[in-house]
C-alpha cells in the first residue's frame, strides 16, 4: 500500500487546506447513477439509503433535505490507508475545541468535513498539530 504510515511524519507534513465551497450530507433513495448530475464528492450505501456529499448549491437546486452545512479541509499529505492514528489525532484535536468532524479517507488524502461556522477555527486547530 502506498503513502506515508508514520504518524509523526503525517502530522508534520499534512498541510491542511480549507476548500471554499460548502457541502451537505443527504440521504436519497435509489442508486448513485440517478444522482451523478449533482457531482457528489462522496457517496456511501447504507441500509437506510444512499448518502451523498454534495455542494450546498446542488442540494438546494435539487430540493434535497439536509441538516447543516459543512466545509471541507483536505490534508494534502499522501497518507496510507494503513496509517494508524491520523484520524484519531485530528478528531481528538477538533473535539478538544468543541468542533465536530466527519472524516472521509480517500486513496491519497483524508478529508475532514466540519460545520461551516467553525471552519476557520478547525483549520487553525489542525494546523496546531503540525507545529
UniProtKB/TrEMBL annotation:
Superkingdom in the source lineage: Bacteria
Classification via InterPro entries: ACT-like_dom_sf (IPR045865), DUF2241 (IPR018717)
Limits of the DUF2241 domain: 2-71
Signal sequence, start to end: none
Matching SUPFAM superfamilies: ACT-like
Entry coiled-coil feature ranges: none
Pfam family, one: ACT_3
Name the record gives this protein: Transporter
Record lineage: Bacteria, Pseudomonadati, Pseudomonadota, Gammaproteobacteria, Aeromonadales
Amino acid at each position: 500500500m502506498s503513502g506515508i504510515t508514520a504518524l509523526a511524519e503525517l502530522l508534520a507534513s499534512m498541510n491542511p487546506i480549507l476548500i471554499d465551497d460548502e457541502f451537505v450530507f443527504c440521504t436519497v433513495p435509489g442508486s448513485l447513477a440517478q444522482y451523478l448530475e449533482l457531482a457528489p464528492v462522496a457517496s456511501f450505501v447504507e441500509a437506510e439509503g444512499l448518502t451523498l456529499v454534495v455542494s450546498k448549491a446542488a442540494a438546494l437546486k435539487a430540493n434535497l433535505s439536509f441538516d447543516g452545512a459543512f466545509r471541507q479541509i483536505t490534508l494534502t499529505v499522501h497518507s496510507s490507508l494503513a496509517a494508524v492514528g491520523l484520524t484519531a489525532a485530528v478528531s481528538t484535536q477538533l473535539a478538544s475545541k468543541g468542533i465536530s468532524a466527519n472524516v472521509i479517507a480517500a486513496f491519497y488524502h483524508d478529508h475532514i468535513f466540519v460545520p461551516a461556522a467553525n471552519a476557520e477555527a478547525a483549520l487553525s486547530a489542525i494546523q496546531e498539530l503540525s507545529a
